[in-house]
Structures are given as structure tokens and as C-alpha cells.
Please model this.
Amino acid sequence: MQHPTVSLTSPATPPLRLGVCYYPEQWPRERWAGDARAMRELGLSTVRIAEFAWSRMEPSEGRFDWQWLDEAIETLAREGLKIILGTPTASPPQWLVEAYPDVLPVDAQGRVKPFGARRHYCFSSPSMWEASQRIVAEMAKRYGQHPAVIAWQTDNEYGCHDTILSYSPAALAAFRRWLGRRYGSIEALNEAWGTAFWGLQFLSFEHIGFPVGQPTSALPTHALDFRRFTSDEVVRFNRMQVDLLRQHAPGRPVLHNFMGLFGEFDHHQMGQDLDIAAWDSYPLGHVDTAATFLTEPERQQWARTGHPDISAFHHDLYRGIGHGRMWVMEQQAGPVNWADWNALPLPGMVRAWTWEAFAHGAELVSYFRWRQLPYGQEQMHSGLNRPDGQRDVGGEEAAQVRAEIDLLLQAVGPESLETAPARVALVVDYPSLWMSQIQPQGKDMPGFGVAIRYYSALRRLGLNVDIVGPSSDLIGYALVVVPQALHVPDTLVKRLTGHPGVIVAGPRTGSKTDRLSITEPLPPGPLRTWLPVRVRAVESMRPGRHYAIHTPDGQARGQASQWRDLVELDATPEGAEVRIRERCEDGWPARLSHGRFELHAVLVNDALLVDWLRDAARSAGLQTLAISAQASAPTPGLRLRRRGELQFAINHGPGDADVPVPAGVALLLGSATLPPGGVAVWQVPGTPTAAPAGTR
Ligand code: GAL
Model:
């Protein structure tokens, strides 16, 4: 598809921009002009507004009130601020749900989720579609050509508060139609779903219900198709908005603000319709509550700094989804209100998170929110300013970043920040995530945990990583890592066939067909082309259970925990030898390789994973660094990231960290020994490589 070329970067507006989220409708008008002035004085360039203000824009059906929004936009624009306008569909007004109750979503128990918070709509509701088309079109017609409106955000965080799935009558009818299109006949569906099991032959499409509420789990393909259907519904709803925005607001990029640790719909598919992928970064909320794969000691360790790889993972994920363009639409600027426990960021972390986002290619970091609001559900959520109007710590740190951006750009110029592709690709596949939720087989297997552990190990080797989808082009990557693609789609098989790089697959990869059945004759299914082995059984392990791993000559290497594939070797033609690099204590292979292809049959402890990936990186000809490679390293939270000619080092603590700055190179920012929350930047002229020269 065609993506608009409107560039937000020019010599006058450097590619490192700061912005804020603001809600004029929540504050008296008398405060707007002062707020706008203070935003300019702080050095902010953009303001995102309006994404929850539908009831103010359309107070009753078809009657629009734009006067307040005109004035808010003019007030901000007068200070030179650029506007990102959010379409307001995340919060349908009460008149809409009263007149058209089918707008409201229904939970898995059949209860309607009522008006009174937000995201109270069902993606399949015809009334919601119609009303959304009207408000988005009217809004885009009014502001589509406004010189201050530089970009559009569709809706707000699709799926926030667990709102992707709806069990409404409209969703059921749409699901049945979707199945009809997919399978053509009920016989074909029965065949595909494997309804021979437990005698579950469905009589007709009209007899199919939701895959919930049965005495035990529904047929896996039934559950998977429902996930696919709902993902398609969200993508379709978004596309409807994007089409209207392209029609009435041509030339303005369209983005959506995705969430962290969230994969309930296919983000790669939605990304096809967007110009930029934005995401909302709440590092402390993620550590405390969202990252269920972290252990309690890890939560304690990163409580005030955020985990050193979770935000970075999402920066890289969304840069890929956004075709190279990524914004942080909401950046945590102080304590949040929504985690189980809400820690205060360590002093310096708001600044460090901002630099971390820029290091990973962000064009814009926009803080949430301008000022803490003394009322409403989020009254305990901090902002750049306190409720009394004084700057809060986050505001001070944003001002510091602003001054540092100016200094940095004076020293090196914006062209040094051109982001180059990494040499390492990590493949993430959303349908595989759904499969691991539907059939976890081990309680701690679903979600992003495995992918983030692999990502983290690569980052501890000082490597830049691109996170790509299963259909992405893999040309140019020296190392391709597929941590846990249960289903390896044909597109990925094609990309890997003949790929000259080193390919590493984690356990479970290739174990399922697109119908969520076991691949034939046995897993790893399509990977058997490159690695002639069969997974004859699998084992998942409760926390605390593990197997020791050793080399063929008996040297101890580490531990397998969580999961293992029990792999047996096919008889291979002479000369085509599969190497068993390590084994579990009971003899089952732990790591195998065949030519440029490597299979991890087990999940291993972090230090061993770093070792394994170091081997792979070296075979791929990549330089690595020993950055925080051991969990017990004095500075496990130090990370490096190269952007263009600049090398960034960010220390998430807990101790001081020495940064590997080459002798004789002057730092542009920070110091050679970084305190927790510290950031250092230096210039490495020349073509980007995996690691700065002279630091191996
Ligand atoms: C995001 C959401 C914002 C706000 C914020 C609080 O999920 O997009 O509207 O609620 O969280 O952290």
C-alpha cells in the first residue's frame, strides 16, 4: 500500500521530538493558553488530544459541537505546537448506547458490559460501525487540512481492559458468516476442526456457538478460529477509520497506539494499514503486573527502573510493525495508577526511558499526561505536572532531555541518527501466541515471555535486533532467531529456504499446523527440511523442576526448565550429520545443529542462552560484547543500542556500570561510569556494525 510521505523531520524540527497527551475537555478553558505556553517553554513539539471526547464533539446524534475543539487546537497551534488528533471511538457517548444497545460488548458469561468507563463497544456492532464512520468522517473533514494537525491516531489502545473479544449476538452472527466464507460447507468445517473427536460434528453454521462455557475446553480449532475472526474484526474496524482519514485528511500519517505485552489481535496485519506504529510505554506497570513471566525477585529488582529489555523489545517490535517508523505515544512520566503496586520511578528514569526510545529509533516520545487530574478514575496517575500546576519530577526530566537533544544535534546533526537495519532478526508471530494460549501444555508458556528471554539474551551480547513478522523480508540478516513460532507459515518457510544466514529455532517451533494440529509426521514440521529430527514427545516443568545440561564430554553447562522437546534423529544421508551440542542429564538432546540451522530443544537459564546465542552470532560472523551476560553480573541492567552513528548506553542498575566506550572517543552525553538511570552517548563514525569497533 501507499504510505504518505509527509515528513515530520526537517532541519528545523529534529528527528528526536518530545510531545505530551493533553485533555482540554477536562480542564477549564482559562487554563488552556497557559498550558500551551508552558508546553512550548518545556520544549514540546506535539500534543495528542481528543481520543476520549466523542460526547463533547457529538453531544446528541448527528449534532456536532466543534467550537471547543477549534479553540483548543488554535490555542495550542498559536504556541507552535503540532497536533495529533485521536478519533474518539474508544469511548462511545451514552446517547449512542441508549439508542443502540447493540453497541455494548458482552462478556464470556453473557453479561452486557455497561456504560460508565471506556472501551464499552463491540467491534461487530453495526450501530457502532455506523456511528464511528460518521464521527470519524466529520472530524476528518473538519480538521483534515488544518496546518497544525500533523497526524491521526485511530481509537485508543484496541484491546485495553481485555476488550477484544465480545460474545454479543452481533459477534456471533458475524463469526458464523466468517466461518461460512472460510470453509464453504459445514462438512469442510467439521473436517478442519477435527470434530470426530468427542463426536462434535456441527449440524450447520447456524449451530455454531462461541468456544466458551463448555464443561471443558472447546475444540482447539474452534477457539483458534474465534481468535482469528476477532482479530480480523479489529483490523477491519481500524481499516474503516484509516480509509476515511486517507479520504478526508490526505497526506497526514495515520497511526494507532498499541500496547505493551499485548497480542490479542494480529498487529502485523493492522500495521499494513498504518503509516507509523505507536505504542504506550509504562515500564513500571509492565514489571509489576503485566509481565506475568517475571519472577518475584525480578519484579523486585526492576521495580523502579523497569526491566532492561521489555520496553526495548516493544520499541523494536513496533518499529517493525510501523515499516521503520515508531512513536512512543504515551510515555510513563511518574507513578501509574493501574498496577497492583505503583512504584515511583528511580530519579533519572523518565529521562533514561526517553533516550532508550530514541536509541531504538523512536521519532517522537510523547509523555502521558500533561498534568495529574485530581478527579476521575486516573486521579492517582502522575503527569509531567502535579495537580497544583507545579512541574513534577517527570516534567523536570523531560526538560533535561529537551536541552540534551539540542546539544546532541548541534554536535552531530540529524543525519547521524538514520536508523539502519540490524543484522539480527527475531521473528514474532501473533497466531502462534494465540495457539500457545489455547493449548499452553505448560502454564507459563503462553505470551511474550519466551520471545523476550531470547531478545534479552541477544541484547546482552550487545547486538541490535529487528523484530519481524512471519512474512517479513529476511534479506540481509546474518542471524534469524525464531524463539517460539508454534506454527511456521509457508511465507516464513519460503523466506528461510535458501537464506544464507544462521537460523536458530526455539522449542515448540513448527509443532502445529494452521489448524492447531500436530504437524506431520511429527514436529518440528516444516523445519525438518533443514534439521532431520522428530520431536517424539514434550515435557513441561513446574517452576523449580529442571534438568542439568552438559556437553557430550560431560562438562556442566546449565539447566533446562519450563519446557523440553524430546528429539530423536532421523537416519540422515551420509555426510549430513546432525550435531548434538549439549544434552540433558538423562541423555535427551538439548541443542542440535545441522549446517547453518540450529534447534534449541529446551528452554534454558539466561546465562546458557546467552552462550548459545553467542555461538550462533559468531557463526553468523557477528561481533558480540559481554554486556551483562551473567545474571550475577555487577550491572545486569546495562544495555547498548546503536542508532546510526551513535552508540547509546543505558544503565537500568542496580549498580554503577562502566560503559565500553573506546579509548580516545569523547562522550557526547553522560560519563564512562554510569549510575543507575544513567545514559551515555558517543559517536562511532562509519557503517553501523553489531558492536562498536575495538570493544570486543
Ligand atoms: C493507557 C491509556 C491512557 C491511560 C494510560 C494510563 O493504557 O491509553 O488513556 O489510561 O494508560 O497509564
